[in-house]
Amino acid sequence: MGQVYTKGDIHDHYIIYEKPLGKGTYGTVHEGVHKETKKPIAVKVLKKDRFKNDKLREKVRREIDLMKAIKHDYVVNLEEVFVSNKFVFICIELCTGGDLLQFLNERGRPLSELRSKRYIGQVVEALTYLHDEKKIVHRDLKPENLLLTGDKRTIKLADFGLSNQLTSEGNNFFTMCGSLNHIAPEVFDNKGYDFRVDVWALGVVLFVMLSVSYPFDDPIRDKAVAKIKEGKLTFEQTDPIWKRISMEAKDLIQLILNTEPDQRITLNQIWDHPWMPERKNKMHKQPLDEIKSPKDAKINKVMARSMSKALFQADPLNNEELAELKMTQKEEAESTDVKVTG
Ligand SMILES: Nc1ncnc2c1ncn2[C@@H]1O[C@H](COP(=O)(O)OP(=O)(O)O)[C@@H](O)[C@H]1O
Ligand SMILES: [Mg+2]
Q: Residues near ligand 1 with C-beta < 6 Å?
């Protein structure tokens, strides 16, 4: 791919559309299109002045460096990066299916087990690659950071903002990060943690896929932490939605959400679990038949985006910044296109 940082003005290369695809902790993501090749793209726009302190600046650099080193079918690809006076623009492979949380919220009902198996298989592949080959712990695995292709057949892991590469000096991290709902219990003990936090988060993601709810949710932070550390799963005792879900799925969730990292199932062992598709058959790569939803499925159990989003609302842009962003309305750009070609 060559150089990741492209010299010059992004607006000479891409049209960026105003309406955001999504908002995250540190920036907004917009759809864009390459002016020459017409290739669609996602552009993550980060305001530089939010990264005045060295720690945050380092965080952005780390996200870019990490993504640069990653090439995998189930991880979004970093294409190029532009820097202007006030912004950093990270051009990422566009996933037109949106993120998994949006998908669940729009449906208002859980995914089928078949679809969940496929997605979980893909996420396990992505995590195995990151952990084993790249020595990277993602640390922020959650539905908002799992993106879908337009046909919704493939899931791609995104948002490496919090991930970190393991160094040979020590295999633990001491930083507390991530949104509460997906944090593994060992993180709260401040004794250091490792790859196994991603496995825990995978269990939370599976729980969310099948029930559109979080396993250890509580509006009061301390209570939520206590629930995570206790790790007690209740399934249909508290939510009838679990009644129609297979024993195998619940068993796998139990094995993943083991509060003791040493006893938690590993990524390799997950493939041997009876709920999982055969890895050899690569079931998760085959076409997915249209999923029919049972008529009696409990619907409209909509969940809110995780609290952390609201805590990091970006400041509104001033006129100077808006001028530098030069965003275009999509309709406007398309009608210009018609004029040019027609
Ligand atoms: N490549 C992409 N294609 C489509 N949507 C995206 C893409 N990248 C991000 N998004 C949307 O933007 C949101 C925020 O992006 P993310 O990289 O997670 O930023 P943050 O670090 O701020 O959380 C995602 O949850 C998703 O909805
Ligand atoms: Mg995110």
A: 21-22, 24-27, 29, 42, 44, 76, 92-95, 98-99, 144-145, 147, 158-159, 161
User: How many whole angstroms from 168 Cα to the centroid of ligand 2?
Assistant: 28
Average pLDDT over residues 193-197: 91
Q: Looking at 157-265, list the stretches that DSSP marks H as alpha helix, in order from N- to C-terminal side.
A: 196-211, 221-230, 247-256
Q: Which CATH number is 100-285 given?
A: 1.10.510.10
User: Domain 2-94+315-335 has what CATH class?
Assistant: alpha beta
Q: What is the 3-state secondary structure (H, E, C) of 120-167?
A: HHHHHHHHHHHHHHCCEECCCCCHHHEEECCCCCCEEECCCCCCEECE
Nearest residue (CA) to ligand 1, atom 4: 95
Q: Are 147 and 98 in contact (CB under 8 A)?
A: yes
Report which protein residue has its CA nearest ligand 1's atom 15.
24
pLDDT in tens, 32-68: 999 999 999 999 998 888 777 777 778 778 878 888 8
Q: Where in the chain is the domain with CATH 1.10.510.10?
A: 100-285
| pLDDT tens by residue, 130-139 | 999 999 999 8
Q: Which protein residue has the closest C-alpha to ligand 1 atom 27?
A: 22
- pLDDT greater than 70 at residue 177: no
pTM of this prediction?
0.86
